[in-house]
Amino acid sequence: MIYFDNGASSHPKPQCVVRAVGEWLQKNGANPGRSGHRMSVDAAEMVYHARVSLGALFGMDQPENVVLVPNATYALNTVLLGLFQKGDHVVTTDLEHNSVLRPLWYLQERGVAVSVVRVDFADDDKIVEDMMRAINSKTRAIVCTQCSNVCGRVLPVERIAREKPSSVLLIVDGSQGAGFLPVDVVKAGIDYYCAPSHKGLLGPQGGGVILVNNRPPRPLVFGGTGTESLNPEQPEDLPERLEAGTLPAPICAGMLAGAEYIRSVGMEKLFQHKRALTDYAYRTLRSVPGIELYMAPYASKCLGVIPFNMRGRHSGDVVSYLDQKGIYARGGVHCAPLFHKRMGTEQRGMVRISFGCYNTEREIDKLARCLINFS
Amino acid sequence: MEIPVKSATYAMKGKQLLHQNGIGSHVGKRSGEAGCYYYLNVTEKHAAAARQILRGGGILK
To answer: What ipTM goes with this model?
Structure first.
């Protein structure tokens, strides 16, 4: 089996993550941050260490600003729906996932203006210029991905943070960057950074994180926090303000193990591995007859994700064929409608291969051979 | 001596901060005027110093 669907969820997980989740389920079923007995306090302490370790990956040394949520979509919804109101203006890009676009369209129907910048695949300067040009006096924020989930284009989020006016917030969707694209959220001046546990952060599904580097957004969900129970309102302080309800301690244990694994290997090494695989794949796949490698001219600007089609074939046919050969890739439109409309592939979709830390060049060779047979 | 803190997260942060400053503490929970709260339990001898450290770290309620 060859797993090339790490953009959807990474597999396999490091053994330490698998072990951490299982061991936590076995040894501690208590609710973290709810009771005062030792098992519950131990659970709260483990969750605290998860915040510290996850924050450390991104230069965030205030663990209370590491908010734990069920996934990146939830994280992005919390930030977007909690910050904007009628009359505000938001700038985004045509590479965004529906986890950004759908909340923005929802807000647009309620009087928030949204401008979509067409990302220049070749030129970072042009991307930054176009974003700055889209800003007006009512602009509250730029919302953009760190790395496209369909084409792998990495956006210059640190430059965007540097060059935007200080009155404009920067919200980054780190779903495809977290864990291997190093970024210091605090030093860079990114106001809100959202990421899932289960992709590059190598944790289990069911977790996500918001790194809050500015004032907290309004809560999206209201309920118990284990503190200030007689107060009819959510507590003011993070992280509890944005964490109503029981936290998934076993998931947090897995997230902690994933973050520790990344810290032990080094994010730079994981980045270099993905860089090398991306370059190798572009070099290898271009020899496949009939392949349409959409981002080949911009390969150096893309990381970890390669979209392609086989001439005259639907993406679904290709992924079904690969599935039969034991190669797992993803077809369709990958929840990124604006990108596919731009490329004219909204009906046919694209085949996406996305690499993880355990993929190898040999696996890419096997993919190339399968595609040659297919063509 | 029980020192109330903002939340479970701040209790853990406070515990770590005190530990770094050579003061041992335990985390506990009770209910009070505003409902449930977490506290750090330190010895009487260390209470004043602990409060000062926790105030400096933004941990206290």
So the answer is: 0.93
